[in-house]
Amino acid sequence: MGANLRRLRDKADISQEKLCAELQRRGCDIGRTTYAKYESGELNIKVSVIIELKKIYNCEYDEFFEGLDVNAE
Fold first, then answer.
1. Looking at the domain assignment, is residue 73 inside a domain?
2. How many CB atoms lie within 10 A of CB 16?
3. Chain centre distance of CA 66
4. Residue 66 is assigned to a structural domain of this protein
5. CATH of the domain at 32
6. 68 lies in a domain?
7. Is residue 67 left, alpha or beta, with left meaning phi > 0 and alpha meaning psi from -120 to 50?
8. Contact by Cβ (8 Å): 58, 14
């Protein structure tokens, strides 16, 4: 999922810092270090953050899960 988060952020042409500031404005207490860990796959992203990212990026939820194998264990 991290690669999809990075792809969507790059597509929106926004830095991690600016994205985190927007998320904080929307009530998600996310710092840049934490967000970087989402993109690198070190941390699982919260559903509440995905909901806000969907609004920011104006995309479908499927775009966050693109290429992930739902049958993988």
1. no
2. 19
3. 13
4. no
5. 1.10.260
6. no
7. left
8. no
pTM score above 0.85: yes
Q: Is pLDDT above 90 for 6? A: yes
- Identify the residue whose tokens are 């998600």: 28
Tens of pLDDT along 9-40?
999 999 999 999 999 999 999 999 999 999 99
Domain count, the chain: 1
The verdict on residue 47 lying in a domain is yes
Specify burial of residue 15 (Cβ count, 10 A radius: 0-12, 13-18, 19+).
exposed
For residue 15, the number of C-alpha atoms closer than 13 Å in the C-beta half-sphere is 6
Amino acid at site 63: E
Show the domain range for 30: 2-61
